[in-house]
Amino acid sequence: MEPKNNTDELLKTTGLVILLGLAFSIAYWGMFDVAGRFLPTWDNSMLHAGRAVFIMETGHYAEMEVVFGGVTRTYHLPAYPALVAGTALLTGLDFAWTERLLTMVLSTLLAFAFYAVAKGISGDWRAGVIAGIFALSSTNLMTWGTRNSPIGLGNALLPIALYLLLKRRTLAAALCALVIALDHQPTLIVFALSAFLFFVYEYLSSLPRANLSVGRIFSNIMHPEVLTASLAGLAAFLTYMAWHVRQTGLACLNFSCLPQFGAKEFGKSIDFLDYFSKSPQAIALLGILLLPLSKAPNRNKALAFAWLLACIILVKNDLLGIGAFTERFLTYLDGVVAVFAGVGIAIVLSWMENKKEPASA
After folding, report:
1. Disulfide check for 342: which of 127, 210, 268, 337 has CB 3.0–4.6 Å away?
2. How far apart (Å, rounded) are the C-alpha atoms in residues 287 and 207?
3. How far apart are CA 98 and CA 303, in angstroms?
4. CA 14/CA 22 separation, integer angstroms
5. pLDDT, tens only, 52-62
């Protein structure tokens, strides 16, 4: 067995090196080769760069902004500009170079975040490497998830936060959720819905099979098996709502005052038949079908499917009468699709190895 273990470790190390090289090269190419000495101006990235400079110059966050033709209290969250400003002040780097380096680090971290959560779900490092590579091949993730803006930080933190839920790292999961809540609303929605669906599974699984009472139904919310998901979810929700009320007051609890809704910045309906007819989406169907049949723990399967279901609901939120940012949520769906593709291929490889062993014995 020792030669096999040595070979496996060598392959694992090689896979991680390839993943690191691919992630770093993509990040470097995007931030230095293509962008040159200029910061990319994708979407509203320069708005957040301006916020970082404002923090560095005044020590305060910019509370007002001109958006959709009017002056309003900002609905943008402070975590990413504060990270850029704080890093620049601590290191003495120019803020533009700080943004480039932070974006490169976060883009590289993105691949390893997907590696960690896919490996955590399946228990197989091969699932992690394949998921990381598929994540780096996603046009949506590489377009949106690697920007020098809050969505870049959010996309790196989301799989990390879900991994921490999986491993029941309660304090770390709550802190990660708190940062997401102060960074980027769409990422927060994906995390909160995924965590809630996972919480429902854990809550129902931990209910006693006999002598069920009203008291136990409510007290079970703080059951040790439920605690991580409930505290992380509450940390994210309460932190964001505190910020939201601070900016908008109590008159906007239904979020109707947000500029995106006022300007009807809605998305289009996504055709899932077309979406899952391409790679790696089609390969992800393999993982969706095989993961329930695998030997992975049930709560691992539950987390993966909670994440998948949350993304599907958000991508198709037009069916709920919302229709907001459906295309943007494809970024997050591509992430969980990469995980299922990696898990599916790893399961097939594992089954093939198990079939070979009796024959060679």
Report:
1. 127
2. 29
3. 35
4. 12
5. 999 999 999 98
Q: Is the pLDDT of residue 74 over 70?
A: yes
Helix (H) or strand (E) segment spanning residue 316: none
What backbone phi and psi angles, to 5 degrees, belong to 70? -145, 160
Please calculate the CA angle 164-180-59 and round it to the nearest 5 degrees: 130
Residue with tokens 């300007």: 263
Q: What is the amino acid identity at position 90?
A: L
Strand pairing partners for 71? 66
Alpha-carbon distance of 351 to 339, in angstroms, equals: 18
The pairing of beta strand 70-73 with beta strand 64-67: antiparallel
E strands in the chain? 64-67, 70-73
Q: Position 204: which residue type?
A: L
Average pLDDT over residues 205-234: 72
Place of tokens 């955590």: 120
Question: Nearest CA to 196 among 231, 164, 170, 222?
Answer: 231
Neighbours of 277 (CB within 10 A): 11
User: Which 3 state secondary structure label does DSSP give 64?
Assistant: strand
Using H for helix, E for strand and C for coil, what is the string for 300-311? HHHHHHHHHHHH
**Could you tell me what percent of the chain has a pLDDT over 90?**
55
User: What six digits make up the tokens of 304?
Assistant: 């993966």
Q: Report the 10 Å Cβ neighbour count for 19.
A: 23
